[in-house]
Amino acid sequence: MNDGYLSVETHGCPMSSCAAPAGSPCRTSKGRVAINYHTARFRLIPSLAKALTVVTPPIRKPGTPWVELPRHASSGAELSGHVRIGYARASTARQSLDTQLDSLTAAGVTKIFSEKISTRAVSRPELDRAVEFARELRAASLGVTLVVHEHKRLGRGLALAELAEQLKSYGVALEFLTGELQGNHDPSGIVFTVLAALSGMEREYIRDRTLEGHESARTRGQTIGGATVTDDAMLSLALHLREKNLSLREIAAKLVITKGKKKGRHPSPATVLRMLREHDEADEDHSHR
75, 91, 114, 141: which one is catalytic? Predict the structure, then answer.
């Protein structure tokens, strides 16, 4: 498609690192004309959705310092269309992704993110990439649906509810091809509402059970679990990571227990929360003296 670049340039680039306006080629982080148009941009064009790359033509002078070009006559066209992004996950390296990939392909999904990683993993890079790609496309005023073989591939319980809340904030819909939640689900629909409610209920349940356990332990004169795995070095690193705005999960994943039966393992996010909270309370008490 020799004039494909003109179709691409009817849209501004949704990539935050580029943000080239309509009518101009994409740019690199070093301020030069990119050799290829960014994927998030040319995928906005249905006829180019399956293309691997869209090359910047010589007329746009790839590699030269980037300058905004006069807009093409059709650059004011309204953004339209709907993109379906697929995600597939297997828990172990031995498990096959074929069934999921086949079902996503049969459902008409052309862009699929996949990985073999446990649901319990703190970070799932390909899922993060899928969500970020969906956000960028949605920012370009496209309708976006994240398509998954079954809801359990995204996560369970609180993790699934938190992901649903994130997708809802972006305006990204969900579609499950099989399982209890099979069907299309709009961000304003009942499934998102229920998952958000379950998220709140589960947080309250965990909090109540934790408080009950602490009270029971104190009654029996026992030390509340988890406190002995922390030390001053761990606290110092946790405080440093918190200053960088890392989440409790991210902080816990970077800490290592150095003593006791759990030596070599990571502390739980709850342990990190308790350690930081006790530090903050001690600081507050000290400042009031």
Answer: 91
